[in-house]
Amino acid sequence: EAQVTQNPRYLITVTGKKLTVTCSQNMNHEYMSWYRQDPGLGLRQIYYSMNVEVTDKGDVPEGYKVSRKEKRNFPLILESPSPNQTSLYFCASSFAESYGYTFGSGTRLTVV
Amino acid sequence: GENVEQHPSTLSVQEGDSAVIKCTYSDSASNYFPWYKQELGKGPQLIIDIRSNVGEKKDQRIAVTLNKTAKHFSLHITETQPEDSAVYFCAASGMESNYQLIWGAGTKLIIKP
Description:
Order of helices and strands of chain A: EEEEEEEEEEE
Shape of chain A: globular
Number of helices of chain A: 0
Oligomer: heterodimer
Strand content of chain A: over 45%
Order of helices and strands of chain B: EEEEEEEEEEE
Structural class of chain B: mainly beta
Distance between the termini of chain B: 41 Å
Radius of gyration of chain B: 14 Å
Helix content of chain B: under 10%
Distance between the termini of chain A: 36 Å
Number of strands of chain B: 11
Largest sheet of chain B: 6 strands, mixed
Largest sheet of chain A: 7 strands, mixed
Number of strands of chain A: 11
Number of helices of chain B: 0
């Protein structure tokens, strides 16, 4: 089944403790992207990647890092999480940026 | 930069009636316009998309229309059913956004039985 898999689905952590949210797709997609979704603010793009080793900032990149060492994986790294990063995070992939995206099921992160 | 406005924020319709959600965009060079449906507890799912060289596209009960002159596009759902209840997002992309999707704020569609 074609899908984007995010892990974990739920995470509660403490301020400053480094964490990684993994994202993997099995569709051989070139393009991948991370979003955060907050009530009243819709979907905001954090980072995106057009291909392996090519990443670029979205609208809200502060406090996040990404890497794209292989085509299928695009992890999101929070080096020092803060409470304002409490949010619902989605990974998405696509054949290219102006084509339909497949989204993962989301990761609900709480930073206390 | 590119901006996408979506209306209404909430739409309540009787089961069996039609629903229409509208989006306007600011960049006249935008050329790709997808619509996504997000059900509770799930990620958004692409339901239909349209490119700037097409005025209308249909897929069963769902249709999207694009008016490039007025810079707006609309989602039409006919014969609504309970399973259509969800949040719907429009988006647009083009050169001004470096081909990244610019999203509308979402419309919560409620289907009343």
